[in-house]
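This is your field. Have a critical look at the following sequence-structure pair:

***
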Amino acid sequence: MSLARRPGPSTRVRVTELRGDQRIEHEDRLATEEPLEVRLSSPGAPARRVGITMRTPGHDFELATGWLVHEGIARPEDIEAVRYCTDVALAAEQEFNVVTVDLSGPPLLEPEARVISSACGVCGSDSVATSLPAPPWAHRELSVPVDVVRNLPEALRVEQPGFDRTGGLHAAGLFEPDGTRVVVREDVGRHNAVDKALGGRYLAGLPVPPVLVLSGRIGFELVQKAVVAGVGVVVAVGAPSSLAVQLATEAGLTMVGFTREDRCVVYAGSSRIGV
């Protein structure tokens, strides 16, 4: 039987880098993003899920403990033990994505929770994969010229008055394949900026443009929003996480990171980027 391998803080991937007129295949490293389910156990009460968070693996016990204390669910002295999930029906890569915290007494407050089955939540029937719509996704024939892709961050940047004033806002923009700007929204939270840009289209009953441009990095939740919205290409100034790339690949979404005027790195769906 193979031993479980604990996920590390970074993940190796193969990428296609478009530099000038060259297409270069090489290895890259991403910040690892994995779901962590926090379960709570107390005397007389079975273990139950109290939260799921996307995180970079490492110091998981401290993360679970700090979250429970900061949420007012438990005091530091109430925590008897913290352990990884020991369910027997687990794949090796799933073992370190669930943490159970044992309390010596009842919690200070009972968060919304349910008694979970013998399968761990994020690695069982409630997994990330089953929470998404089924493929295939839209924009199968979509193609965006690489010169357009490289200029999208600047096209987004000139529509960020809030950032000009504060330096503290993220931005998300929806564009057509030829680079035409449709809408840009800003917010202190990158997730909020995406919600605003897409929400405006929903409220107006208008179609969602196929290209989403982000001012920062690409996390799993942002890709999830893009997939649900039917976006075909996500372009960002920063780097994606490992789980974001995994979801984009499974969903048939094109993902481009580290986008500058002279280069960009395609992490998924390189066939949609024309050189």
Observations:
- The longest helix spans residues 190-204.
